[in-house]
Amino acid sequence: MATQYTLPYTLKAPSEETEDMYLAEVPVLPGCRAWGATAEEALFNLEGVTADYIASCEAHGDALPAAISAAGELVVAV
Hints:
- The protein is an alpha+beta fold.
- The chain has one domain (about 5-75): Double Stranded RNA Binding Domain (2-Layer Sandwich).
- The protein has one helix at about 40-60, and strands at about 5, 10, 20-25, 35, 70, 75.
- The strands form two sheets. A four-stranded mixed beta sheet has the order 4-3-2-6. The chain has a two-stranded antiparallel ribbon with strand order 1-5.
- The longest helix is centred in the middle third of the chain and has 22 residues, at about 40-60.
- It is elongated.
């Protein structure tokens, strides 16, 4: 069975800083961010990026940041 993680994320509205796209990121995973034309698309993209990030850490034997806890939901910071 796969491990589920509680990962707080931020979602920024389109702006010049975000290249007029929504930007979602998981601050506890350095560089883990994704963009989308809608908030939903950015979050969908972020789920894939986050899963790949964690899978890569596990495959290479790299420790995950201590701020990650095993649980079963995605916590939203809006």
